[in-house]
Amino acid sequence: MARVLRTWTASVVASFALFATPLRAVGPEPGKAQWVTLGTAGGPRLHANQAQIANAALVGDAVYLFDVGNGVLRQMAAAKLPVRNVRAIFLSHHHVDHNADVGPLMMSTWLFGAGKPVPVFGPDGTRHLVNGLAAANEPTVLAFFPVAGPAQRPLSSVFSPTDLPSHMNAPQVVYEDANIRVIAITVDHFQVKPSVPPAKMPEAVAYRIETKGRSYVYSGDTGPSPNLEKLAQGADVLITEVVDPPAFGAAMRKSMPDAPSGILDALSASMSKNHLTPADIGQLAARAAVKTVVLTHFVPAEEDQPDASGYTEGIAASFKGPVLLAHDLDRF
């Protein structure tokens, strides 16, 4: 009897623990498309146990990359995703935690890729970035002179970059093949007025990925955005960034103790406008009627937070569906 009671008590405790914390990924049904969160840390600072933001949509053996922050090649190796299987790359915007490894990925594709040009899509500046990296790496190409066989293909032929249209206020199909259809829309990431006006304001985009049995929406980086809500309507999985503003403010004060308080206050305030808080995510997911929410691009990084509740507190007030905390190399 005592043994039965202990077993029953353990089962009850485990059940309460399950509902008290966000769920972890258990993987999609066999045979369906998969989304791999290769890296989940938001922001330019590097971390020992989290790679910067990077994702892969998988359909069979085909790999489609969505953002390629620092560490993406190592994470692809860990996930057993060969570079030769990459069919296309999609950048949400040009912050370094999203595009840092375009160059290393280009070199690896030149050395080990399938030989066909890989299309690269992103907002204005994508062509400039890719073409500039190809030119900058000519010394590396020279160092890999062949000792047998024909000459290597030009590095400039490895990636085929495309700048997406500016101000896409309605969803637009930007890529389609036998496996997936990718739809893009402009989102509101750069909402805070610059203190020093740039020559041109940058843009950010979100993507919707539709496969034969599953739809994903990837927010990239954005503040509250009606366009993202349009894109996310009825999606099976919403993969969204999340920011914990109080924790971010505390982290900035710790890492930048000599910075003027006005600068730190402005940085903290901008996070709630240029990124999504848990309350924003809950309202978006409810209005768009998505089935599941996956949180990634944690700011501050998840490995720095002993308590993850700041990433989720406020979502359940609006959204009643499953909310999953992504970790590096999780599959959904």
Low-confidence stretches: 1-26
Tally of separate helices: 11
Strand order of the largest sheet: 6-5-4-3-2-1-14
Helix/strand-derived class? alpha/beta
Named at the architecture level, the CATH assignment is 4-Layer Sandwich
When the domains are counted, the total is 1
Q: How far apart, in Å, are the first and last alpha carbons?
A: 41 Å
Tell me roughly what share of residues is in helical segments: 25-40%
Morphology:
globular
Can you say what the CATH homologous superfamily is? Answer: Ribonuclease Z/Hydroxyacylglutathione hydrolase-like
CATH topology: Metallo-beta-lactamase, Chain A
Largest sheet: 7 strands, mixed
Gyration radius, rounded? 21 Å
Name of the CATH first level = Alpha Beta
What is the residue-averaged pLDDT? 89
Percent of residues in beta strands: 15-25%
Number of strands: 14
The H-and-E topology, N to C, reads as HEEEHEHHEHHEEEEEHEHHHEHEE
Could you give a quick summary of the protein structure above?
With 332 residues, this protein is an alpha/beta fold.
Notes on the structure:
By secondary structure, this protein is of the alpha/beta class. The chain has a single domain, classed as Ribonuclease Z/Hydroxyacylglutathione hydrolase-like (Metallo-beta-lactamase, Chain A, 4-Layer Sandwich), CATH 3.60.15.10. Helices cover about 30% and strands about 25% of the residues. The protein has helices at about 1-20, 70-80, 95-100, 100-110, 125-135, 140-145, 225-230, 245-255, 260-275, 280-290, 310, and strands spanning about 35-40, 55-60, 60-70, 85-90, 120, 160-165, 170-175, 180-185, 205-210, 215-220, 235-245, 290-300, 325, 330. The protein has a seven-stranded mixed β-sheet. Strand 3 (about 60-70), helix 2 (about 70-80) and strand 4 (about 85-90) form a beta-alpha-beta unit. The longest helix has 19 residues, at about 1-20. It is globular. The protein starts with a helix and ends with a strand.
